[in-house]
Write a structure and sequence with these properties.
The chain has 245 residues and is of the alpha/beta class. It contains eight helices and seven strands. The chain has one domain: 3-Layer(aba) Sandwich (Rossmann fold). The structure holds nicotinamide-adenine-dinucleotide. Nicotinamide-adenine-dinucleotide binds next to helix 1, helix 4 and helix 6.
């Protein structure tokens, strides 16, 4: 499905990005795997033809360097993100301002940096596709996670706006909106910080379980592929029916 495509994946050392790296490689993509965690190098070493860059998406210069090393770009999965406050659920009045700033710096400004570096590279290569990872919290409010929810609403706005700008340039821009996914963000942080949330997460989804990271990665692969050739500006919930309630 992605044969011969040069694709960047951010947040590729863990969770959804790690699953995407494996699945996209299986579909024939040549990958540039980006993560601030050095473990991304070992992920690339285990995949045929994959490259890696251990860098932080909050640094615009880092993304420019990635593009310089990987110029004939066909696609990008802008997936790196953080939940903030170690996954603790805190009302606005108690949420530390510095945590709000960190969440916005990665989830909004970091993704902005990625778009700014990727869009000209895609245009220079005759077009391509971008998928951004938002969240169902990019559509819905989330008590105790206002900063995260706000940042993921911003990802929807960036996705739709970039899609309109790219439409006549053969650049499609879409977003995936996962429900709860079994990645370290939840299993090692969110569920640990909030045992009540861990107990309720499965039943909150009409399908009675949370997602496997591969289920989000498969949706992203489809949006990046030519099978989604007339899909742009779309926000695709992959949430077991959570947002249909
Ligand atoms: N897990 C869920 O339930 C869930 C639900 C909805 C949306 N999401 C979103 O999915 C995306 C992936 O999350 P995950 O669940 O796989 O989490 P994760 O913590 O397992 O993986 C996130 C990866 O992003 C990397 N990263 C974080 N900040 C970075 C930065 N500034 N620069 C480079 N790399 C950075 C981390 O090192 C990590 O490897 C995030 O955008 C998250 O908000 C997750």
């Amino acid at each position: 499905m992605l044969e011969g495509r040069n694709i960047i994946v951010t947040g590729a050392a863990s969770g959804i990005g790690l699953a995407a790296a494996r699945i996209f490689a299986g579909y024939g993509a040549t990958l540039m795997l980006v993560d601030r965690d050095e473990a991304v190098r070992a992920v690339a070493d285990g995949l045929p033809g994959a490259h890696s860059c251990a860098c932080d998406i909050t640094d615009p210069g880092a993304l420019a360097e990635v593009i310089a090393r990987f110029p004939a770009l066909d696609g990008a999965f802008n997936n790196a993100g953080i939940e903030g406050a170690g996954g603790a659920l805190l009302p606005v009045t108690d949420y530390p301002d510095e945590e709000f700033d960190k969440v916005v710096a990665v989830n909004v400004r970091g993704l902005w940096n990625c778009l700014k570096a990727e869009l000209p590279a895609l245009q220079a290569n005759g077009g391509g596709a971008i998928v951004n990872t938002s969240s169902v919290m990019g559509w819905l409010g989330a008590a105790g996670m206002a900063a995260y929810s706000a940042s993921k609403h911003a990802v929807v706005g960036l996705t739709r706006s970039a899609a309109l700008e790219g439409a006549m340039l053969a650049i499609r821009v879409n977003a995936v909106l996962p429900g709860a996914v079994a990645t370290p963000m939840l299993t090692e942080r969110g569920f640990v910080a909030n045992p009540d949330f861990a107990a309720a997460a499965a039943s909150a989804h009409p399908m009675g379980r949370i997602a496997r990271p591969e289920e989000i990665a498969e949706a992203a692969a489809w949006l990046l592929s030519d099978k989604a050739s007339f899909v742009t500006g779309h926000t695709l919930a992959v949430d077991g029916g959570l947002s249909a309630r």
